[in-house]
Structure formats: C-alpha cells, structure tokens
Design brief:
seven-stranded antiparallel sheet; 5 helices
Length: 181
Amino acid sequence: MRRDLTRVISELNAASLTYQEVGATQAESMPQGYGHVHRDVSLGSGREAFERATAALFGWRMHEEAGLTVVHSGGKPTAGIIAVLRAGWPLLELTIPCRVVYTVDENDRRGFAYGTLPGHPERGEEAFVIAMTETGDVRIRVRAFSRPASLVARAGGPLTRLVQQYATDRYVTALRRLAHG
C-alpha cells in the first residue's frame, strides 16, 4: 500500500490545486461560495507547550493522533510538499491528497496550510496556525474553506459539514494532548 501511495504522490506533483483562491485562509474574510471553519482554541500556556504543539503539527503527529494515516513527499510541511491523508477502514477508506501552499514561521506563530488536489473529496484550503499570545496562552487557530468535489461528498449534504467539524475536533483534541507532553 505504501508503494502505491508513493506512486500517487509522484503523480500528484504535476497536478494543479482544485480551487482558485490559493492562500485565502490568510485573508481576513474567506471566499464566498464555500463552507467555512473558524476554530480558535487554547492548548495550554508557555514556551514549552508552544514548542511541543508546533513540533507535533510540523511532524504530522497531530494528523496521526487524530486517526489519519499520513504519507508525504518530504519532511516537515513546506510549500509544495504533497501529503496524502487516509481516513476510514480498508474497505471504506478515503484518500485525501493535499499540497502545502504556505507556511508561517515566526517566533510566536507557526503553522501551514494545505490545499486540495484531484481525488480529494472536497475543494478548498485548510490552515493550522499555532500562536502564543503576549500572556503566554498557546492557541491553535484552524481556518478552512471548502465545498464538495466528489459525488460522495455532494451526496452527504449537511453530513459532510458534520464530518469536517468532527475532524477539526479531533485535530484540536490531539494537539491539546500533544502540547501537554
């Protein structure tokens, strides 16, 4: 299976993103015509919690702890890296291909966003940014915009949004646990 994913990643390197608004999760307002996710949750406090959380995010551990399998084309997320996430069970498994479209690397703010590639059930972008406030509060900020791309996602209607909320909840829960060490 890993060999198959390696071949898929190689093919995805030449693929275009499936949406036009690349980088729009950085903007104050996100594009219309998509469902939006805005989550801003405390993970803990202090520099150690910040460093643990960012290490977990950039090591793909947040995704893995949330129950996804992650195969990627390089080490930590940097612009251009392909990641193929897998969710579900062998007979009901979703393949979720993405490309990292930007990273944030500041002293008190780190993260990245990835955009959807062909084969992803949705079209859009999702950003994960960990920030430490002036008071030392460490926060995860998740911003996303998406709309169904596959027949399964379109047929899911409102259930598709609930699945996305569930995935975001799992990311936050995993990162909160990982930030505490």
